[in-house]
Structure prediction request, 649 residues.
Amino acid sequence: MDLCLAKARSCMKTQYERSRVSELAHEVLKQKQFYYAGKPQISDAKYDAMESELRKLSPSHPVLAYVGAAPSATSPRITHDVPMLSLNKTYKVDDLHSWVGEEPIVGTPKVDGNSLSLVYEDGLLKLAKTRGDGRVGEDVTDKVFWIADCVPKLSKKLSIEVRGEVYCSAHKFAQLVEEMLERKLERPTNPRNIVAGMLGRKNHIDLCRYFNFFAFEVIGVDGLKTEMDKFEFLDNLGFSVLPHKLLKKAAEVETYLEEIKQWMDDDEIGYDGAVFSYNSLSVQSRLGNTSHHPRFKMSFKWPGLTARSKIDKIEWFPSRLGIITPVAVIEPVALSGATITNVTLHNAEHVKAYNLKRGDLIEIIRSGEVIPKFLHVVTPVEGDFDWPVKCPSCKSKLEFDGVRLKCLNSDECPAQRSGFILNWMRAVEIEDISEKRLEQMLSMGLIEAVHELYTLSVKDFLKLPATKDKMAEKLYKNIQATKKVPLAKFLNGLGIEGAGLRTWEKIIEHFPGLEAIQRITAEELVEVEGFAEKSAEQIVSGLKDRKDAIKQLLKVGVTPSVQKAKFAPGEGPLAGKQFVITGALSMPRETIEKMIREAGGKAGSAVSKNTSVLVTNEGDSSSSKMKKAKELGIPIWTEEALLTILRGV
DNA sequence: AGCTATTCGACCATCTGCTC
DNA sequence: GAGCAGATGGTCGAATAGCT
Prediction:
């Protein structure tokens, strides 16, 4: 009886499993084909979940061993003597640890490209082949002669096989797009797919010169004992080899992953994880392969903090300098704790390079946990990108300034005008008035130019919507309070392109006073360290353009003042030191930075080798500033430590 | 000419505090 | 409760400066 029941149960389970297996297998195969065709339909994480479920139910299912689309019938097919397998992968550091065990391993970044195998005979490149399905690939020999890193002739007469990854860097991708468009070819959607596409092409194969090749494997060489030996060997032959590092203990894995992550942020080369191999080749051959991956290699990918959404529309906003910046409004999507609806597209050239338009499915990522960043197009819709012809604000014609679209109507463009006033208000710190209230003031005709702010009365503010006595008085007081303003802020408020607060402070050090600064010639400014012809001219001519604005501001009673520094230049307790702050401190960052400058130090915004100290209250922060500081061995102080020194002043 | 460092300008979501 | 403002957080792209 018991037995019967158990049997029945297992039978039911098997039946369920069987149908689930075939369902999964079908879906996995379908998605694999989409993926290899360069048109993935679901997220990597979803796909992986599906695949691992299938593996659990049917570990030896042939679909799992399927590692690529069958090579197209028209191209010459080449059998790999040694199969080109795909890699086992994990998303968990813990898995990685248990896999590593006690073995020394070699880590490399994982390049998001296409595998390629180069066959040499007597030192000459005879054949290049893609991975294909792992056993049979395609002959792409004619293409690789265009790829600089694929060495055509070795320095020694060796008969070997070299394997690696072909990829297209972000930088070269942009150039490739340009050239493909010139040739009236279809626009490539992203760097990884165009590599696969180009290797399969019959014409325009010279475009392969935009690709690079990283070698990481060599077959047919005697006397190599370790994975590190392989890299050295390949390096000596003249190949670009993947950056690689010997890790002696599993404990070193974490720090190595941190390192890779930093490279990924650069994203010039599309790294998408890390690959680890046992260093000893004898251990490797002892372990051997499963049907679809080597047991001595493991790849690691970070759980994807990306999301996909459709572009609803692209909006173009003119800035105070007339630069028109595109922003993609997307269908709201959740990503690491926030709902994302807007994504910057940087500039007009960017929109062109990726052919961005309404309906495109794009992938985004939150960099620095805050700002959503466009990654790439997943599925484009038909059609071409679109640029505004006229300024969205003043309707005047737009011109190109480098990679950006620009509205040149600086005097009359409403957006630039309000941007100018807004910049002034921010620079001199007029509180409680921002974009909305300024728009109201402008549209009601309360003001037209910056200096008119200072002639407004309490009565004027009462005319604004939702503004009663309390608010009106506050606004009036806030504006009047900025009549006395430090010279650097005054100058910063003039919105001269190329000069920010830091730049003005530096100028004031050499030319103390508004009159002196207005008299500066470009030749004189070039004498100051940090200024060359270009920026000197830009600043001098900017000052000239603002002559009237300055005059009127002075006339209504705005008085810029030069604060006497407590210390002479080069003195003070923090002299010669550059500080960078990360994370929140007890006071606004600007306040602390001001205190640092007053004590003779410098306040920087990014960590470099010139940074003396990183100040933070979050010792375990994983921000990029922190990582960089640790990497460079820069001392890390708490806020308290900094304040102790400042208080001693 | 190529590299590195620095600055400017711009970006977006969330939370908090204030006024109406 | 609605609406506005302000602070916060870190990164990116472009341009420039200055060094080698």
